[in-house]
Amino acid sequence: MNASVLIVDDDKSVRMALRMALDGKYHTLSADSGAEALKQAEMKAPDMVLLDIGLPDIDGINVLRRLRVFSPDTVVIMITAVEEVKTIVEAVRLGAYDYLIKPVDIQDLLLTLQNAFENRKLKEQIRTIQKSSIEQYHYDVLEKSPKIRAAIQIARKVSVNPDIPVLITGESGSGKGVMAKTIHYSSSEKPGPFVTINCGAISAGLIESELFGYDRGAFTGAATEGKKGCFEAASGGTLLLDEIGAMPLAAQVKLLGVLEDRIFYRVGGIHIIDVAARIIAATNINLEAAVEQGDFRKDLFYRLNVVRIDIPPLRERREDIPYFINKFMSYFNAKFGKCFKYISPEAEAAFIAHHWPGNVRELRNMIERVILLEDDDTIRVEHLPFMDIIESGPELFQDESFDSIDYLEASKSLIQEALKRTGGNVLAASRLLNLPAHKLRYRIKKYEIKI
After folding, report:
1. Which of 121, 345, 366, 376 is least surrounded by Cβ atoms within 10 Å, i.e. has the fewest?
2. Is residue 332 a contact partner of residue 371, using CB atoms and an 8 Å limit?
């Protein structure tokens, strides 16, 4: 179907000439006044509008201004008899795509319309991708687990109160960041920036300048005009303090003051800056235990723990696994141009039986791997050879219930079994465990596993 173009001009001969030029290429409509143009556009928004600036009832600038309100996606091209810079600048500021000078050159008109329509389609594609990306990292009510439904309800309630800090807890990969984005994107239609800082990945000497920014000359190397920190970058949106339990104690003191007073200074700065961002903290450690051990400030814990959302691990909400399989299948089909539609009963049973030490992130990575590497319409057991080490898990712990095993001990035993099967080859074991080799080496060292 051809794109629609509304021609708005009080000169009948101009309207007829433009309609003849566009005949067969576009579906054309016409209006002889600003009021008629707005009436037609409000009934059914056209794809594009050719809008004369010098209309007798409502000037083209005001028509454009009102079009932007109820039809923001319509592409508007202004037509003017006189090239007045001030008027053209105002039209562009209000969102006009381009302008043409009368008498209109037909080739220029056709090229401008073609480019304008391509621009419109590109914006629509970008919005679709952004919407898909948001949905990909967004909890919804299709999940069946009562625990996660309760968490979603809390998230949506707190989303309307941006001044209240939120603490999200849960194992690595369980979806803490997704829950933070659920709060962020539920807050309004235009929620502002979403900024994340990993508090455990930045050295104690740099974390304050990363959080609060710095002014020129604040420290050696700060010779520029200064830099915004995460608090400023997240202004009008959300700041996620990930791995908050790993934040150095000195920075915890500063953070507490910021949360209490809702103001801060840049490092080396003298000007007060208001906190204009929602603060969400996330952790995969037991903060109460960290407080008892002196690794986390009690007063900061209480300040963050106003609203708490606990994300259960995937093994405690197995009823959600089929939902996630379909969700990730759809996402990676679109990403890789594949056509997976089904999962075999045997493969689904394997997914549900799996212990999921890496939680939803691990499930997502498995689905991504299958869809990337396999050409089929069904996920089958034979597509999951990398899961067999996990499925042998219960046999590794014959003396006690698998559910009662400490996660670290289970992880250590799985790594030992993988190394045994691969003759101590770390790279081969990392492939078997679907774990990056550098992370496997780190865990081998951490768990003091001998190869």
Report:
1. 345
2. yes
Element (H, E) at 13: helix 12-22
- Contact in structure between 14 and 37 (CB atoms under 8 Å): no
Q: Please provide the size of the chain in residues.
A: 451
pTM: 0.59
User: 267 - beta bridge partners?
Assistant: 214
Residue 136's nearest CA partner among 366, 352, 335, 350 is 335
In sequence order, the β-bridge partners of residue 233 are none
Buried b (16+ CB within 10 A) or exposed e, 264-286: bbbbbbeeebebebbbbbbbbbe
Of 3.60.20.10, 3.30.70.3190, 3.40.50.620, 3.40.50.300, which CATH number belongs to 146-312? Answer: 3.40.50.300
The two tokens of residue 303 are 């300040």
Of 301, 179, 280, 191, nearest to 237 (Cα)? 191
**Helix, strand or coil, per DSSP, at residue 21:** helix
Are the beta carbons of 170 and 313 closer than 8 angstroms?
yes
Residue intervals of the chain classified under CATH 1.10.8.60 are 315-446
Q: What is the pLDDT of residues 334-385, one digit of tens each?
A: 888 999 999 998 888 889 888 899 999 999 999 999 999 999 999 998 888 7
CB 246 within 8 A of CB 188: no
